[in-house]
Design goal:
Layout (H helix, E strand, L loop, with lengths): L2 H8 L4 H7 L8 H8 L10 H21 L2 E2 L8 E2 L7 E2 L3 E5 L3 E10 L8 H14 L3 E8 L3 E8 L2 H19 L10 H7 L13 H35 L4 E4 L2 E5 L11 H7 L1 H6 L14
Parallel strand pairs: 5-6
Antiparallel strand pairs: 1-4, 2-3, 4-5, 6-7, 8-9
Length: 296
């Protein structure tokens, strides 16, 4: 990452990061935001959902204008705002619009594959953050489900909630980002990033509660082994019946199949290593070890 991009990422907290700092984002966490702000994070690879979200943003805004009769302000997207009292607090709303009686407002546009009765918590947090940053009293969240079902909700600015959020974000900015101190992990994904290797010889003394959890885990593991064995036995019994048949049906309804897969080409690594040992060694790379969780 070059110095310019690093400085930009370290310069502020944007609306899309606030819910993660609050622990309300299913796809991020305070620790992941901290990694990005301190230049330690990995570049996020674009995916088809992110690409669709960007392309469909204009469509969601157009849906909103048609359904509500509100007037979108042209070229209102992409403007970055900074809170007058908190220079680290920034926001770039998707759109601004003019309501019939409520004046200028903010519109957040979303896309999802889920069927939602109400917006996600992360979306609500983002809208409230933008309202507080820009200084508007009203806003809406509009979303498109599976590309066809349009929904929206209108909200008023909640100053008490915004101040609560700002206190948490300000603390994160001051005590984590600026002091370069990582926040506490909130999920296993954080732990995997934070503690990639174990400390040799370091053991945690079990409490009564931990001992109970370990015993329950052992019991569940034994049950799973028994179920896996039963599953294998049932499969084998059906195979004995099928022999060379393609499958078993009940009337016209297929129950199970046992079909031969198509031939495929594979690389004979062992033969290549035997016949070309020097060339083989030139292509060996060290793979970082991962932590394995074992039930003793």
């Amino acid at each position: 990452m070059n110095e310019t991009n690093l400085n930009q990422r370290k310069s502020s907290i944007g609306g899309s990061e606030v819910a993660a700092i609050l622990g309300l984002d299913n796809y991020s966490s305070p620790y992941q935001v901290w990694l990005n702000k301190t230049g330690r994070g990995e570049e996020t690879e674009d995916n088809k959902y992110m690409e669709a979200g960007r392309i469909l943003e204009s469509a969601v805004a157009e849906f909103f204008q048609i359904r509500t009769g509100y007037k979108l302000i042209k070229s209102s997207g992409g403007t970055k705002y900074t809170h007058p009292d908190y220079p680290f607090a920034t926001g770039t709303p998707d759109r601004k619009y003019i309501g019939s009686k409520i004046g200028r407002s903010i519109l957040e546009c979303k896309t999802t594959q889920a069927n939602l009765d109400d917006p996600l918590q992360a979306w609500f947090v983002q809208l409230q953050w933008y309202l507080g940053i820009v200084g508007f009293n009203n806003g809406s969240i509009a979303w498109l489900e599976r590309g066809v079902d349009f929904k929206y909700r209108e909200y008023e600015f909640d100053s008490e909630f915004f101040n609560y959020v700002m206190d948490i974000v300000a603390d994160f900015w001051t005590n984590n980002v600026q002091k370069d101190i990582p926040p506490e992990p909130i999920n296993v994904e954080d732990l995997n990033r934070m503690y990639k290797r174990h400390r040799e010889g370091d053991f945690i003394q079990a409490t009564d509660e931990i001992k109970v959890t370990c015993d329950l885990l052992k019991s569940i593991n034994e049950q799973l082994k028994e179920l896996e064995q039963k599953k294998e036995d049932y499969i084998n019994s059906l195979k004995m019946v099928m022999r060379d048949a393609e499958g078993i049906v009940l009337g016209q309804i297929p129950l199970v199949t046992w079909k031969t897969s198509k031939p495929s080409l594979i690389f004979d690594k062992d033969r290549f290593k035997l016949e070309n040992p020097e060339l083989y060694s030139n292509y060996l790379i060290e793979k970082e070890g991962t932590r394995r969780f074992l039930i003793k």
